[in-house]
Write a structure and sequence with these properties.
about 90 residues; mainly alpha; 3 helices; about 80% helix; about 0% strand
């Protein structure tokens, strides 16, 4: 398989990934980061550094968004516990 074929497979994987639901698929973000990392490495291997950089930046963006969602969910849950128990210590 030539390099164009490999790129095509990675892009097809990204298209298939977009059909999944991030709500019902717990590994959604990790899958996207894996696909984009592999595509980025394929680009590096063939000297397509700008395209590789774009994929690696997308990996970082997905990771940051996931971390932000996790922090928001934790804060929301903590606030709910505090309201429900009437305690400010979250217990």
């Amino acid at each position: 398989m030539g390099e164009d074929g490999a790129y095509g497979l990675h892009h097809q994987a990204l298209l298939q990934h977009q059909l999944l639901s991030p709500i019902t698929e717990p590994g959604y973000d990790w899958q996207e980061m894996d696909i984009r990392s592999r595509l980025g490495r394929a680009y590096v291997a063939t000297g397509r550094i700008g395209e590789a950089r774009g994929q690696f930046q997308a990996v970082v963006a997905v990771h940051r968004a996931r971390a932000d969602r996790t922090a928001t969910a934790t804060a929301t849950a903590t606030a709910g516990i505090t309201r429900a128990t009437g305690r400010g210590d979250g217990r």
